User: Fold this.
Amino acid sequence: MISKHVYAIGAAFAAVGLATLAAPNSATAHDVAAEIGKVRLATAKYNDVKDALAAGYVLAPPGDCVTAAKEGLPPAWGGMGIHSINPKMLMITGAEPKVSGESTHTDFLNPAILLYEPRADGTLKLVGVENLVFLNAWHAAGNAAPPSFAGRSYDTMADYAGTEADEAHHFEPHHDQHIYFAKSANPRDQLNPFNTSVTCEHFKGNK
Assistant:
């Protein structure tokens, strides 16, 4: 995953060939904050993970809590949390050897993935959302460039054979975009793949 801006995160991923930097961001900070606010309001109904599960979301196997450190990246970048995916929205077609699908879904008011942070009391807090489109399906639909949100192109993810980690998180090549709800001085930072406000310190599984 990369940032559309020439951030340190984008430079680091580009340096190891994980993705290609996109064009400069065209959205203002105000536009980004407003768009994120709309998404947060629309997804508040999933603040309780039980409601998300009832609506068809499932905790992505193995239900892990993702951080930059676990991905071999600088710990200061923060985390993503636990992913809860909607298989129907992602149009999953298989899981071996990697998750494949036909999703071209980009509606953030009804996102395909919810991001939760484990809390000390054992509950999960909704901290963000994500959409993901599979490259093959996206291109088959006649798209050349990645989709965008608030003027920012989605990140492009594919496993890089030169590392032990799977940079695409066991998914086939895809474009994805994360949105985090914790406010930042620069709202564009809330669109980076990882967020410094998200921690997995209270995660009890997969030690």
